[in-house]
Amino acid sequence: MTALATAAVGFEDDLDSEFTARADSGPRARWRRIGRDLGNGILVLWGAATLTFFAVNAMPGNPAVAMAGGAGSHPSKALIAAVTREYGFDKPLIVQYFTYLSQVVQGHLGFSASQKEQVTTVISQSIWPTITLTLTALALAWLIAIASCLITVRRRRVVSSLGSGLEVFAASLPQYWLGIVLLEVFAFTLGWIPATGGTGIIGLILPALTLAIPLGGFLSQVTRDEFEAALEQPFVVSARARGMSDRAVRLRHALRHAILPGLSLSGWALGALISGAVIVETLFSRNGLGGILLVGVSQQDMPLTVGVTLIVALTYVIAGLVVDALYLLVDPRLRAR
Amino acid sequence: MTAINSRSSVAAVARAATFRGTSLRLPRPGPLLAVLFLLFLVVAVVDPSLLTRYQPLAINPAHSLEPPSFTHWFGTDPSGRDIFARVVYGAAPSLSIGVAATALALVLAITLGLIGGLGGRFVDGVVSRVLEVLFAFPALLLALLFVTIFGASVTSLIVSVGLGSAPGYARMVRGQVIAVKSAPYIKASRVLGHSRARILRQSILPNAMRPLLVLGTLGIGQSIVWASSLSFLGLGAAPPAPEWGAMLAAGRDFISSAWWAELFPGAVIVLVTLATTSLGRYVQRRLEGRDAGT
Amino acid sequence: MSAVDVRDLRIGFGRGAEHREVVKGISISIEPGECLALVGESGSGKSLTARSLVGLAGAGSTVTASALELHGRDLRAARDRDWRTIRGRDVGFVLQDALVSLDPLRPVGKEIAEALKLHGWGTARSRHARVLELLERAGVPEPQLRARQLPGELSGGLRQRALIASAIALDPGLLIADEPTTALDVTVQAQILDLLEETKARGRALLVISHDLAVVSRIADRVAVMKSGVIVEQGPTAEVLFEPRDPYTRKLLDAVPNGHDRRTRLSPSSSIRVRERTIPSNPPSAESTAPIIRAENLTKTYKGPDGVARTVVSDVSFELAAGETLGVVGESGSGKTTVARLVLAVTRPDRGRVLVSGEEWSSLSETQRRPRRRLITSVYQDPLSSFDPRWSVGRILTDALPDDGYPGTAARGARVLELLELVGLGAEHLTRRPLLLSGGERQRVAIARALAPEPAVIVCDESVSALDVSIQAQVLDLLADLQDQLGVSYLFISHDLGVIHHVSDRVLVMRGGRLVEQGTSDQIFDSPQNPYTQRLLGSLPTIESART
Hints:
heterotrimer; B: 72% helix; C: 6-stranded mixed β-sheet; 6-stranded mixed β-sheet; 24% strand
């Protein structure tokens, strides 16, 4: 491996990080950056769609049979042949791929055989519950992280250890198990919250908490490290020397620095939450993209699976842009340059 | 031209004081407990019969769904199997899935990260884009697709979890390689006239790979959680096998009447993650503390 | 009533058996309109003393004193709430290094206004007006614009002024400044000292913490010299600096390079060999010896942040003879570090070339140059970051030995020991890690590494800038001895005029990427021709100036 890597080593000839590191600034560079981000986003969508398309086609079984109603319904040979011709399953895979891609570019995600509906219709019916769930969970996770840091960082030894211990514990919880325990305790034993509470706010509490607690523990750990580092900085001493109280130092100076690393992880976190939503939606019998995805894969429903993947990747791309914007809001250094 | 004469002296004194304080105390209880628990697991993997006299698959319908007692520490499941025995015997398959998946992820990540970090601007661009795509791709979907294509088995479980967590590590490896590559001591080596191959071998690789030990430790716990999630969705080990995720999936149906069938396997998974995480972070802090001192 | 009256101040860390006293019973007092300078090296406890005056000695510290009074107010039993009313209002505190002492995420105007707001001063509108007024008074041009900018966008001098503006916002009776001019260029340094002097003239008490005796001599009325938590000598500035009674004070004064004739020893001769250094009877000059390094019309341009090309080195030519020391001096941004990089061939010139021993150097490909790289080595400002963090001292030095020079492990081991001895270290350092060495020892290891390939030239880029004066003195003496013994040439880059004056045979003065003047050290320092050089030398505070 060493030999191979050596061949490709590209030490920059000029090791002038102090000059090149700030190359991305100025108004023209900003437009270039936006253009690059958009290009990246499209690339990500294309990559996700392509990967899924070929993966679904690599599954064992005849897609035409699945399309005609699945092997269980014993479709006639004529029907299978008709479906094969209509959807072009007899053509080479690469042709099918480009046909499908050109449809997607025009906004047609295709027809879902398993749901007997247009993929766009299926997705539009299930996307909002999932988005509500994941965004609520993300907000809750941040709430947990910030509260835990403000309350327990650099306090008495016992409090600080308890805080960081609970964070590690929360981050170690498997979502499905946490969900089951929460269900058992709050819905069945205590009866405070209905087990399958529909779409209202009450019904959102347990699923959102199930997703939020482990993520909150993770974000807390990242935030805590940075919070501790910020409280050691000379500018914090400076602020104290101006007569600032401990609480104000934490809120106005340290917190801002502390949320930066967690913030840059939030785009990734949203993606992870969508994965988690598959589990939580199954567990709490909630309508959403997760259930649809499970159906799509198990029924070998290519248009549905690729459609959901595209939507998830799109969410990730948008989340990334939003996170970038928020980052600029919190860290003006990048704006100014 | 920053002179750093006395800026850090206060901090250094304070640090020296706290350092002296901690060095005299016993090791902190967290990492110690973690080590003890992991030792227990090692025994469970090597020879589970040392820890329990029950067999994990021995059915005993007369004792179905018994609550925890002195004879059955963790209670029994609907078929009367001893849950403690199942948890102990489940350590081997569950842990090996976690370790293997993490190892696979690290191997992939190191390969991709090195190519990206060491390659020229173009190669790095391609690797970064590929990582971006993999990142945007929900890990669970990747696992779903993989298991559907290759069938539900322990191997598919390992591969899909490994694939799912590789992009994250790869990003870190790449970042680490780039950071080390531009470190002052690498420049110093170049000025001494060492060849690129030599610098790569003796400085860049070892320094860039150093944090991976900790990452790997942290990752094992997360991999086990992931793998058990997939088992839970019915994508992993087949039900009668004593694998923790599968046990959880089976226990779910009886949760109202027999909470112990669900609680204990889950608690063990949480403990494994806790133990690896706290141990990993402890080592990490030790390494950083040594690196940051003045 | 004194502004500050402290008697028998003790500061310690840890409890019970682990208690360790860092400040061991010091007493100081400052009258209004007076400036006391607290002088000492790293770890002397001077910064900690200053911090304890605003109740910020740090977590886990215990502070005791038989008197701790600010403006007549007893603060021995002050609680955090009491301290908060004092901080900023009665005492202004300027921390060292404004870049990290101002919150990098907030505009400087906000930081200054914060000082006012915390003590309930004025309304948002009046505070804004006051911020502009303060910036103006601190000598910040375009206060409207600067108030909106982040610390990172300001130059070092402007940052320091903004920090001072925030400390004097409420016109406190006592201003504490911790290393207020460290890391600043001399011309900026002079402006900051003016600003502090003006505060003093308005009748405010001033406590300045510094390691720089020249700076102290310019501003302080009285000086207290601290060593290991104790004040070893205290008195009027002229008395302490010119008739020092304590040996430590004398040692500190001796170590300052600009207080002496060129090329004399700075440190007590204990360092390596007892050997008087003599000025060579006929110093090597470019005419008598063939130059080892010849730089011709070097030009280097970088693309700036805004996509506009910035020329950092422009048309620079010079020669370096064997056994000679060529000093390169200039303020930040003058291009002196880029010159070093061009000579070391870690970056390529856009125009011009570097020749080594008359042969092509900068135009070679890296593969062609690599076997000859042992001719030029380097000692960096921060030695620690220039060592592989996993390596021991022995490994570092072995790695630097030329592959063909010392066949066999035994020969290599012997050579490594020899190198260690050359720099005044011993076999006991072989297995140590640089992290556990002191700053001076680290720099010695760095020098040993630079000597390992037996180079003709060593490039020293701010090699002594981060060291305490007494350590700096030892390192400078070591470099001089090595030159005598081995005949190696130095390209010595520094912002410190005193150091440059002390070590150099010839000097290049750089500004804005251009060479403004070059000549022998005496020419440059005694009769500078260029107005910029004159201004540079004029703003350099020297201990002698305090005599008048």
